[in-house]
Amino acid sequence: MSHMLTFGSEEHPVEVEVSDGHSEYYVDGVAGMAVGFPVSKLILTSKNPYSLQEEKELRKAVCTLIVPTEALFDIAQLAIDAIVANEGFLGDASEKHAQALSQKIKSCIGDSKE
Hints:
5 strands; single chain; two-stranded antiparallel sheet; three-stranded antiparallel beta sheet; alpha+beta
């Protein structure tokens, strides 16, 4: 069964149908980007957390995104707009996460010394 999501603005709403078979991929980088006309290609990658190679970073290609170049510019602008709109939250969350992690590390170090 599919469901609908609404994005965009009041002036220009965008309805997106998300089907049950909709794929989601975790990526944490772009290894290659070919910006051209009429389409651009991005090789989306993720790190291999189990790689023992220290002299070079080992990444796995998760998928290749092929998108009209004009849409790529729209995606970039959407990302910038979202970052600007959420700047305060991103900063607060990052600071809180860093503090919580630091507390956890101190707690673990303290526990191991006893």
